[in-house]
């Protein structure tokens, strides 16, 4: 249990964020109603620092702090690949996708699919995007937050989740994207500060890198500091699986998921959007060092007898003692930090939780209003659209809480969320990639690919959950499964595009690149702020990091 001062800091932080969110979202000129453009896209006024921090905050939730530390304890730096590989997909977002998104003036990504393909593609992506936002961005985040708050405060998990849901929903539903982005910017800074604090204390406790490697050598666990594992590695995350499988997950998540890309759609202009995405790519270097590495420090402290994990021990099905590492991050907070700092770390955890939920709720509100409701009632007023969005966000909160018992069955929350993404992403990644690079990608081809690919992904997921490793499918690591499903989707779209040849409209004719070099023709800002320079620098840094941690 934590001290009174830490509880006071936590409560004060929550009230501060809610107040800022409400003030930002409701502040407007006298007698002026909130328009749909202001509510859903912040009036297209966002600049690159805010976009970059908001992208990071929407991506990094309490789930990441908790589960990445757990993965650091269990498997070392391996799952840090999900953070570093994101930098490459953010470069793709900045170079290849953002120009189409900004120039076409879309409000949602399903809107983009309708302009490039047809209405059926828009409807399907809107449905999948809402579903994934509820499961991936909200429910999993609630689960991680509930585990943390129950461990720290002794509060029932569902009670704490309902309270956080109500407070986050309050400023998000009322304030819209501007409230979300402003609070996310603050929360990113708090989250990073808190993560650095726990990293420094864990580093000092273990005595530095040499002492850690000495313990790992003694435990025959030196592979824990390697990011790239050999083919056939027991983790299922060999370097081949990472470099083939992650782009399928990453392109969907960073380039084609409404919850993430909505921050880009609210950009002031194309340059701010591109540089904001690249800024987030640079920030994504940090999580390996401040989220994953502390978990490895905890493993070292545990093996050296310095850290007590007895509270995480429980009796397994066969009567043996089993270590449940889901709570490793909260134990690090309570055992390594002094009073006062514990409250700051809890605030950081809540920052991650609230920012991701807020971003997902705003995305759901936008999709429900623009892509679903307005389709059937095209003459709907701005006031009505905002109202529909608010109700949709509220319903999504209730549904996500109802999913928690099902999702809690995963041993590792981080593997759980990526397992779900691996079966959702392939058809969406396929139709976006082929759509922007292949002139002959047809509407019917994309439509059948989304349908068949989604059905195939669900079928494979069910077989894995029901029969597990007993089947051939169950023996394929989820990263490689994502790649195989993507290949099946590409074949499907190519075949159907030839069976049903493309008939370009005036809109779709300008929504694909004529060559691989065309995206680089825009000059951009001069100097170091140029998107080409920033992309090259980011690529160089990531190459050096992978060489150092291979």
From TrEMBL:
The chain crosses the membrane at residues 6-25, 46-69, 84-103, 124-149, 155-174, 186-203, 236-255, 276-302, 341-367, 388-408, 420-438, 445-464, 476-500, 531-549. Pfam families: SSF. It is found in: Membrane. GO terms for molecular function: D-glucose:sodium symporter activity. It is a multi-pass membrane protein. PROSITE patterns: NA_SOLUT_SYMP_3 (PS50283). GO terms for cellular component: plasma membrane. Signal peptide: none annotated. Keywords: Membrane, Transmembrane, Transmembrane helix. NCBIfam families: sss. Belongs to the sodium:solute symporter (SSF) (TC 2.A.21) family. This is Sodium/solute symporter.
